[in-house]
Amino acid sequence: METNDRDDLREALRELDATPAEIAAWTPLVRRLAEWPEGHITPADQGDLLSVLEQAIPLHSAVRQALREQKPRRVTGLLATARAQVSLFGLGFWLVSALVTLLGAAVVLGRVLPDQELVLRVSGPCLSYLGTLVAFRGRGTRVLELELVCLPSPLQLAIARLVIVLGYDVGLGLALSLALWAGGAGQVLTLTLTFLIPLLLVAGLTLLLSLRLSVQAAASLAYGSWLAFLAISTLSNLQAHLLSLSLVMLPGCIGLALLVIALLRIHASMHRLLPHL
Questions:
Q1: 124-159: per-residue pLDDT in tens?
Q2: Conformational region of residue 60, where left means phi above 0, alpha means psi within -120 to 50, and beta covers everything else
Q3: Distance of alpha carbon 150 from its chain centroid, rounded?
């Protein structure tokens, strides 16, 4: 090996953070590998290799067979997946969501604002905003590729995380209704629906928009659109009609429809969510 080649070799080893002793020990080995004659692999050689490997590899995968035998039912498997995903949310999500609900209840019970329902229409979708940001942050944190190699499919992961987010939000809504009832607030059912129904709309719109936009942009656009709608309806004379009890279920139905559409499109759109390198 020429002097320039030896210098290049030492420089390459130094870039790999090799110590001087390691460089001295590795240099002769690398030189011998570089001088090793290059062989030509024939089809016969490949056949011999495959025949040896076939004897060493079992015909049936023991791991795959065990997964088939222990495959749980759909509901049980979904709950098991959701339980495994709970640790991804972090303590901050649970505490902040509970704090938002607590503040909403305090404002309503304290009658700080004349329009109590408006407070709940703002705080309820805020939980969806926070939940979807945390649940579907995989694309932004560059771990989507790792999620795709997991045993659950992307659709199963999405449904499991929605179960966690919406289940926790509904639980907070029930706790809110109990607090309002204990505090002597009137129309507890109406106030609870006012809190929960827009939550479904923002969650569904966020999940659908996240197929085209980043999760942060989708959640901000969905929640911002709902706030803009509230502002327009509050400042105009349409508030009594658009936010009446007869139409209170409409945003929830739209939200559920958007969730179903988004879930049906997740698998087909997964290739576009992967980063293009």
A1: 889 888 888 888 776 554 555 555 555 566 677 778
A2: beta
A3: 13
253, 272, 273 from 276: Cα distances, Å: 36, 9, 9
| C-alpha–C-alpha distance, residues 110 and 171, integer Å | 22
For residue 148 the two structure tokens come to 């795709």
Please tell me the distance from the alpha carbon of residue 174 to that of residue 180, in angstroms, as a whole number: 10
What is the DSSP code string of the chain? --HHHHHHHHHHHHHTT--HHHHHHHHHHHHHHHHSPPP---HHHHHHHHHHHHHHS-SS-HHHHHHHHTPPPHHHHHHHHHHHHGGGTHHHHHHHHHHHHHHHHHHHHHT-SS-HHHHHHHHHHHHHHHHHHHHT-TTTTT-HHHHHTSSS-HHHHHHHHHHHHHHHHHHHHHHHHHHHHHTT-S-HHHHHHHHHHHHHHHHHHHHHHTTTS-HHHHHHHHHHHHHHHHHHHHHSTTHHHHTSGGGTTHHHHHHHHHHHHHHHHHHHHHHHHS---
pLDDT exceeds 50 at position 277: no
Asked if residues 177 and 191 have their Cβ atoms less than 8 Å apart, the reply is: yes
pLDDT computed for residue 121 by the predictor: 84
Query: What's the rounded Cα separation, in Å, for the pair 277 and 267?
Result: 21
Q: Rounded to whole angstroms, what are the CA distances from 115 to 61, 111, 122, 201, 240?
A: 63, 8, 12, 21, 12
With CA atoms as reference, report the closest residue to 5 among 39, 13, 16: 13
Give the separation between CA 26 and CA 45, rounded to whole angstroms.
Answer: 31
Write out the two tokens for 272.
């576009």
